[in-house]
Amino acid sequence: MILFSVMELLYRFQKLCQIETRRGLVLVGVVAVSHLLFQSLLLPYGNSITSLPPGGKVPGDDKYSFWTSRSYSKSLMIRNPRTINASDFTNTSVLVEGDNDEEDIRVGDMGHLNVLDEEDRDVDSGFTSENDVDRIERLVFDSVENQENTNVLESDSGGSHVIILENISKPDLDLSADNMQEEDATVVPKKIEDVYTAFQSPLSASQTSSLLKNITHLNDRESNARYSVGSAAFESDLVMPKNNSAMTSDTGKKKLRCEIPPKSITSLQEMNRLLKRHHSSPRAMRPQWASVRDQEILAAKFQIRQAPVAINDKQLYAPLFRNVSMFKRSYELMKRMLKVYIYKEGNKPIFHQPVLKGLYASEGWFMKLMERNIHFVVKDPRKAHLFYMPFSSRMLEYALYVRNSHDRTNLRRFLKDYTENIAQKYPYFNRTGGADHFLVACHDWAPYETRHHMERCIKALCNADFTTGFKIGRDVSLPETYVRSPRNPLKDLGGKPPSQRHILAFYAGNMHGYLRPILLKHWKGKDSDMKIYGPIPSDVASKMNYNWHMKSSKYCICPKGYDVNSPRVVEAIFYECVPVIISDNFVPPFFEVLDWGAFSIIIAEKEIPNLKDILLSIPEKRYLEMQLAVRKVQRHFLWHAKPMKYDLFHMTLHSIWYNRVHQIKLR
């Protein structure tokens, strides 16, 4: 009887357990469905199911265990159906930091478009503000700071802000070894540590560990897409949305801010502030896919910041530089590792035909020396850190501009078509939006000709005007050099010693622009110490020509003409005369590395009436220091038929390299 009772109790207990089990399964099912529904509504990225299995992983090939959502945010890429979406191949867990680098612009005098200072821009509706992104970024980094292989990449310029979850399953993209073009193993290091070995630079274990926590570990394959170089199609299973285009059509409407004038910069202090801000918070867009070349640049950036102190360097005069140690280290790394690919597209005379004489000779000399260089130039674009677009802005104006038409639209369209052709033929422009491409142009119209379609390229411009779109910290101020003899660009170099310079200040030239008449109004014939002329009078020229005045003056006045730049800046250095720059919004050459306060005077345009008082207030000792610095800096502003260390060719290329290095963030 007792046995029967026990068996009955066990039977009832079993039935009760089965009922509770069914209830439990129903409850689990409800929770799972709720979980999926919740994530599908709040996180519509196709990844909600991946958080259900243990560890948040879906069984599969770990090689492709990442997948991010497609982002249909605004892009500044050239329209190219063979180009992949930037967010489709992000192989790490990141917070995408939004950065809409589009500036509001206004129509200025003579049809120029003036770019507003970044601090005055309105945030486009529909995009998260930078302050919001910063708050999100801090929260996310607090939660992942102890995790390995986590990185923050720079955002696409479209301004989308996406928190990408870790360990997301990526669908099979059919990227087998057979249909993927791999790079030579000797070219692409499998790990970032290999980059340091290639640099042959001593790095401590702590330094290496710190760096590795802040940069992306790359696969030995440079990208997760199939592509071929040359005219072959750039293939991908994923393509960009049709509306993703870098081009602003000539007939399209651009939001104008006519009511807000651009801010002016009139002092070195203001320019220094902008440079520091852009280098500390670069505004480069996130590449479409990862590249070993970017990782090499990241490693170089780390080494530049950790540069050993350069003591008593016999080749470099330390007072000329913002930081001579960083410059020296950066220059050494450039010489050791930088590779440049030059596009072969384009016909003469606009392309590949350098002009070596006259006012715009700088772009021609750089083109000639760059195309003939065997140290930096590579034939395989996959090995390149930078891409050179070798056109002459002077020859573009000469070949296409209709005289007296006052219409330069056809010049801009010509370069637009050239850029689109490159973007369709090669994958490299679209990868970065042109951020690793550069151009060198000295004609005053170059900022207009390259607007929009080359907006993200590094522009080395003589017309380095802050109000017309020149970006301090990204673009390069190219010295405007008037070359009179291509066979001997150093002819008549030098000047008198300080003790024989009896003229306080000198200027002579045509009355271009509004500023020079103001200068003459206040100082022409008003003071014997101030030799201020328009065109040099014939009676003066017969005895003492222009060069003689430059060589005999303490200070050489360099006022702007129609545009902010003037060849007199380099001429003053050429003749060892301290340049006095009077041109608001002009960014001096190689501003990112040179300390112009050491060898020049920069005066606001409104201070012209006080010009003599300002010059006389400079102590003699200070003048001698500046004149010595002018003689020392001269070597950095000279063209040579065969490039020499630290000369104008190398300084131009270095500034392009240096600004590219600072565009990439080091987290």
Proportion in helices:
25-40%
> Could you give the order of strands across the largest sheet?
3-4-5-6-7
Q: Give the number of helices.
A: 19
Question: What quaternary form is this?
Answer: single chain
Shape: elongated
Question: How is the biggest beta sheet arranged?
Answer: 5 strands, parallel
Q: Provide the residue-averaged pLDDT.
A: 73
Q: What percentage of amino acids are in beta strands? A: 5-15%
**Number of E-state strands:** 12
Rg (CA only)? 30 Å
Unreliable runs = 40-203, 208-261
Structural class: alpha/beta
**Number of separate domains:** 4
Beginning-to-end CA distance, first to last residue? 78 Å
Subcellular location: Golgi apparatus membrane
Membrane topology: Single-pass type II membrane protein
Pfam families: Exostosin_GT47 (PF03016)
Protein name: Exostosin domain-containing protein
